[in-house]
Structures are given as structure tokens and as C-alpha cells.
Amino acid sequence: MTAPQVEIYGPGYHPSQTKHHEWRTAENSAAHLLPHLERLGRANPRLRVLDVGAGSGTITASLARYLPSEGTILATDISDDILDRARTHAEAQGPDVSRRISFQRASAYELPFPDGAFDVVHAHQVLCHLASPADAVREMLRVCAPGGGVVSLRETDMGMWCFWPAREELEQFRQLATDVMVANGGQAEGGRRLLSWVLQAGAERADVEAGFGTWCYSAPQDRRAWGGSMIDRLRTGQMRDKGFDLGLVTERGIEEMIRAWEDWMAADDATLGIMNGEVIVKKK
Amino acid sequence: MTAPQVEIYGPGYHPSQTKHHEWRTAENSAAHLLPHLERLGRANPRLRVLDVGAGSGTITASLARYLPSEGTILATDISDDILDRARTHAEAQGPDVSRRISFQRASAYELPFPDGAFDVVHAHQVLCHLASPADAVREMLRVCAPGGGVVSLRETDMGMWCFWPAREELEQFRQLATDVMVANGGQAEGGRRLLSWVLQAGAERADVEAGFGTWCYSAPQDRRAWGGSMIDRLRTGQMRDKGFDLGLVTERGIEEMIRAWEDWMAADDATLGIMNGEVIVKKK
Q1: Which domain holds residue A219?
Q2: Rounded mean pLDDT of chain A?
Q3: Which of residues 172-211 of B touch A (CB under 8 A)?
Q4: Is the pLDDT of residue B29 over 60?
Q5: Would B33 be classed as within a structural domain?
Q6: For chain A, first and last CA: distance in Å?
Q7: Rounded CA gap, A283 and B101, in Å?
Q8: CB-based burial of residue A51 (10 Å sphere; 0-12 exposed, 13-18 middle, 19+ buried)?
Q9: What is the pLDDT of residue A8?
Q10: B28: distance to nearest CA of chain A, Å?
């Protein structure tokens, strides 16, 4: 086994970071997996799902609702603190959800499970935080069951955000977020590169379905959730600190970005579209 | 009535332009409409659909498969030639499809139909070719039936293309396509602006669902269809001629773009993602 990769979640776990993650559900962030989950669940009532890098676990909990009668999800992350938060969220969904989910600290680079241990291996916005994404995909393929198991991945692309109304400060925000992500050792172009990582990890092209999915923040409640979270990041988040440390932004620049987000949140015709790469690998 | 807008389809109807349009189906290009079409069709077996700017009509024909028993689609365009092509395509799909579709020459700015004449009004990649998109949306809202009729729109965004493997020449192609579109009087940022056009046309925000959808060209057959069509455009299309006329590109630049598309078509890990704005307006 090669030396373990450095295990740090670059953005950290400040509420400014985790809050908008909790907007995420299976429906808005793992829709490409759902037909496969339902198909496999019809054939196997004891479906075993691994959710790698589950974070605060809102997608995990909503995936649980798509499982067959005896299906289970094991959620991993590298932080015990965030797994505690995920556990609390799962319990709040009631026993039908929480009884299906267990939690275990694990690195995506060295999953402590035997080959083929899971029917479905899912990871959402995990590879973009890793220095060696293909190594993590190789591990996910290893623990996925041969003969039809599925690895499901989704990664954002920091180059694929569009805002309306157009504001230079929002574009500066996107650039700052990108630069901080890269400075943290992450991958800014995961959406477009996801397929290449999967092939580097040993999958064959014919076994991979590649596509793109989106997030749209435009309805008033979605604008408030997203814009409020971005303003929190600018006021108190790791992005602010790192931006100052790296000389990427000034106090005045931060204030202008905050005002631009406030204006965007207030505009009835506002949209933010973000594109994410999505792949399904069917393991032979 | 205000003076009619100039009615020209900027890109023209050369095969280099129309060929890749014929890859489009209801499933890959109007998925946001399908649940509404099925919902409305269950309540009304005589559902009346208007497809504005139907072009070569492949989406029209595949929408016909989602209609209730006595449902019909009227397809309009400003070109009789392209409507002939659409009619031929519809006839090739067999009588179950062709009996439902009729064709009529019409401008999106002045739809020759009474108020509320259609239960569903659909337009795909039409507004991006117009100088006054909101005026066309106002017409579509006018001919849509009040009390629950639906206007369904989808518009691309030329700023939201991502390529892998990264190649400067593909980015130059995207920029050339954008510049030619704008020189033809079109709108390059329709994806992000679609909601704003709909509100300018008089819709209320609470009656609009806004989102984004994507095209992905990555599977071998999709790479061949898209790449081949882009190379045709560079070799013989209106984009080439206009690019030369406007001094946007050189012969050598064109050749380099063609080679870049050929390499992209041959790469197993190649992806092209394109994001489109999508809205559904429910007419009160």
C-alpha cells in the first residue's frame, strides 16, 4: 500500500461552510443515482450502500428513503465531529431513516472494507477536496461489488457558475472561492474532469455513464439560503481568513462582495446556476 | 401593435447548422416540460400544444409521444424550408406521431392565434436568436390558456460550456460561436437571463419555476455527432463565413480548431458540458 494521502478537509467545518451543505438532498444532489438505487433495490432487499465523505449527512439521510426493506447505508467521513452532526440529523428524521444508517470514520484513500463489500458506493463533492482524486476512486471501485454494483460520483466545477443580474463582485467571489479551494489542495474543475479520474482509476469507458447536473438558486428561499451562507463565509469563514492570508482579497473587496450578494438575494429575477459532473460506473 | 421585429434566423439552415439540432429530443432537451405535459394530458385528452420556432422538428416529434389520445401540436417557424424538413421528419416517425402535428409559418413576435389558444406553449433555443426576447415571451404568454396553461422555455448560455481535455482552441471555438451569435443579433447569455425575460414579459415570480438543465457530449456516438457537426461548421458553415467577414478568425485558426475537435472526438475521457436555463410559467 502506498503512503496514506494527507487527510484534511480543506474548507473546514465552520457553520458558514456546513450550513449551505445542509440544503442538499438526494433529489437535488444525487438524482442521477436514484434510478439505479431503485433498480438494484428491487432485486436485493438487503442492499448495502456506502456513502463516502458524507459530511453533515443530509444526502445520506434522504438516500435512506430510497432503500429497500432491509437496505442499509454506512456513512464515512474523516471527521468525527461532522459524523456526530450527521448522526444527529439522521436521528431527527425518525427511526425509519436512522435505523438504516451507521457511521464510521474513514479516509476515502483507504476504505477499511473488504473488496466488493457494497452494492452501491456514493460520493458527492468529495473528490474535489482531494489532491489525488483517482486514488480515491480506485478505492471506491475496489469496495464495490462486481457483477453490477454501482459507483456514483458527483463533483462541482468552479468554472461553471453563472449569475444574473451580472455583477463583477459576484464573479470576484467565484474566483476567490476557486483560488482558496486550489490553495487548500482541491480540484477546481472536477465537473469536467470526473470522467478522466474514473478512467485513471481503472474503469472502462463502456462501463461509465457520464453526464452533468445542476444546482439552481433562484426561488426566494433558495436565494436566502445560498446568499446568506456566502455572506457568512465572507464575514466569518475559512474562505475569508485564507483569502486574507494569501493576499487574494481586501477588507473593502469583502464588503463589496457582501453588498453584491445582498442585492442578488433581493432581486426577483436573480439566478445562480452551478454545473456538476455526474458519473455512474457499473462494475463488471 | 408595434412594428414587427426583424425576422431572421441568424445561424441559417445550412446542414452544418441543422444536423446537430436533429440530435435533440424531448428527453434530452425538454425534460423539464414532460411532467407538466403528462399532468395536463391526464386532465385533458384534447391537449393543444404550440411549439414555437420548432426548426427541424425533432423535439416536436418526440413531444408528440407524450400527448394524450386526442392531443395535438402545432409547430411554427419563420422558414417554410425548415418546416418542410420538420414535416418530413414527423412523417418518418409514423402516423401515430405525424397525425398529431401540423405546421404553420409564423413569427414568434406575432403569433397568429387568439388569446389562450393553447394549453402548452413550448420554445427551445428560440429566444437566444431574437433581438427582443421578452416581446416573444409576451406573445407566448398571450396565446397560453389562463387557469393553468404552461409556457415552457429553454435557452442555452454560451458562457457555460466546459471541455475536457482542456484545449485553448476549443475555448477559441466557443468564443467565435458566441461572437457570431451576437453579431447575428442573438443573445449569448440566455441561460442565466431567461427568468428576467419572462418577468419583463409580465409573468409574476411566484408563477415561474426556474432551473437549469444540461447537455453532455461524452459517449462515443455523441462525441462523433457533436464534433463532426462543429467541424462541418468550421469547414462550410455560416459561422466560418461570418467569422472571416468580421475578422474574428484566420484560416490557420480554423484549421487548428478542427484538429482540436478531432482530438477531442478521439479521446476516451472527453466531455463537453453545456448548461441551459429552463423555466416553466403557469398562467393564472
Answers
A1: 15-282
A2: 95
A3: 189, 191-193, 195-196, 199, 205, 210-211
A4: yes
A5: yes
A6: 24
A7: 43
A8: buried
A9: 72
A10: 11
